[in-house]
Design a protein that fits this description.
283 residues, mainly alpha, 1% strand, two-stranded parallel ribbon, 11 helices
Length: 283
C-alpha cells in the first residue's frame, strides 16, 4: 500500500516482536491497558508499540492483498506479535484471537476474491462497500469531502510521510488512515522511551485529531457496512461459521479495527480533550 514507515518509527529503542505489515519485529509486554507514565514522559512506550503493531496489521489487512501482504499477515511471527500486543492492550483479546485464527485459515486468492467483491471497481450501483472515510462522515457535499481528505493529507505532510508510487487511492482510504495511526503510535513509543516530551505531545495531539475527526465516526460505520455486505454477498448472516475463510478474515478485521479505535478514544489521558466532529469536546 504505502512505504512511509521505517523501523525506528515503531521500534521505540527496545526489542519488541509485533505483527504488522512493515516487516518489523517488536515484543510487547504488560497487561495494563491504561495510559501510563514512563520515565516522566507521555505514556508507556510498550503500550504505544503494541498499538502500532495492531494498527499495522489492520492497515495491511484492508489494503490490497498481494502475495507479500498476505505472507506477512499469515506469518507465525505476526500471530505471536499480535498476541503479545493483546496482552498489553487489555480488552482486545477476543478480537485479536479472532483475527489471528481467521488469517491462519486463508490463502491469497481467496482474500483477493473477497477484497475485489467488497472494495473493487464499482459497478453501476457503486462500491458494495466504500473504503473512503468522507463518504461516511460528511455526506455528498463535495467541498466537505475535499476538506476531510485535505486534513489527512495535511497530517501526512506534517510528519514527512510519503506514499509509495504504487499507491493511487484517495488519502481518506481506510487502510491509509489506519497506517497513519500506526506511524503516529510507533513514533509515540520512540518519544516516550527517549523522554522527548514535546514530540510526544505533538504526536498525541495528531492522534487526537485523527481519532476524533476521522476514525471515531468512520471505522464503526465502515465496519457495519462490511458486516452487512458479507452477510448479503457471502451468506454469513449473523453466524460467522457460515462465512468462508476469506470472508471471515474480513469480518475479523473490522471487528478488531472497531474495538481498537473505541479503546483508543477512551484511553486518551485526562489532560487531553478530544474534540468532537462539531468542534466541541468529547466527554
Amino acid at each position: 500500500m504505502s512505504d512511509h514507515h521505517d523501523a525506528d518509527e515503531a521500534a521505540g529503542g527496545e526489542e519488541r516482536r509485533s505483527s504488522g505489515t512493515d516487516g518489523e519485529e517488536r515484543r510487547s509486554s504488560g497487561t495494563d491497558g491504561e495510559e501510563r507514565r514512563s520515565s516522566g514522559t507521555d505514556g508507556d512506550p510498550t503500550r504505544h508499540a503494541a498499538r502500532a503493531a495492531v494498527y499495522a496489521a489492520l492497515a495491511g489487512a484492508l489494503g490490497y492483498p498481494d502475495d507479500v501482504a498476505v505472507a506477512e499477515l499469515t506469518a507465525d511471527e505476526t500471530a505471536d506479535g499480535l498476541r503479545g500486543a493483546a496482552e498489553t492492550l487489555d480488552g482486545l483479546d477476543d478480537e485479536v484471537e479472532g483475527f489471528v485464527d481467521a488469517f491462519a485459515a486463508v490463502d491469497a486468492e481467496g482474500l483477493r476474491r473477497v477484497y475485489d467483491d467488497l472494495f473493487g471497481v464499482p459497478d453501476g450501483d457503486g462500491y458494495p462497500v466504500v473504503p473512503y472515510e468522507a463518504e461516511y462522515t460528511v455526506g455528498d457535499e463535495v467541498s466537505h469531502k475535499q476538506r476531510r481528505v485535505a486534513t489527512v493529507s495535511g497530517l501526512l505532510d506534517a510528519f514527512g510521510l510519503d506514499l509509495s508510487d504504487g499507491f493511487d487511492e484517495r488519502h481518506d482510504h481506510v487502510a491509509l488512515e489506519l497506517e497513519l495511526m500506526q506511524v503516529l503510535a510507533g513514533r509515540r513509543a520512540v518519544a516516550a522511551d527517549a523522554d522527548l516530551d514535546d514530540e510526544a505531545s505533538t504526536l498525541r495531539e495528531a492522534e487526537a485529531t485523527l481519532l476524533s475527526q476521522h476514525l471515531r465516526s468512520f471505522v464503526p460505520a465502515f465496519a457495519a457496512e462490511v458486516r452487512a455486505a458479507l452477510a448479503d454477498r457471502h451468506g454469513g448472516g449473523a453466524d460467522d461459521d457460515a462465512l468462508g475463510p476469506a470472508a471471515t478474515a474480513y469480518r475479523a478485521t473490522v471487528d478488531l479495527a472497531e474495538a481498537l479505535v473505541e479503546t483508543d478514544v477512551e484511553a486518551h489521558p485526562p489532560g487531553l480533550a478530544v474534540p468532537d466532529d462539531e468542534g466541541g469536546e468529547a466527554p
